[in-house]
Design goal:
This protein is an all-alpha fold and 64 residues long. It has helices at residues 3-6, 11-35, 42-63. The chain has a single domain (3-63), classed as Helix Hairpins (Orthogonal Bundle), CATH 1.10.287.310. 80% of the residues lie in helices and 0% in strands. The model has no long low-confidence stretch (mean pLDDT 93).
Amino acid sequence: MKAHELRELSMTELEARLNDEKKALTEYKFSKAVAGQIENPARIKNTRREIARLDTIINETKGA
């Protein structure tokens, strides 16, 4: 999701999404470690960016 779309979500929705993304990242890293390669390696990078985006928006919301 884009940052402006995430800013419209409530805090509970943001935190739930953050947890989902962290779980997905763990699964991607695990499957890469076990199988040696994954279908789409860019998913790890995109998931890390999404987590950073969510963290930023959560911190902005708490600070405001």
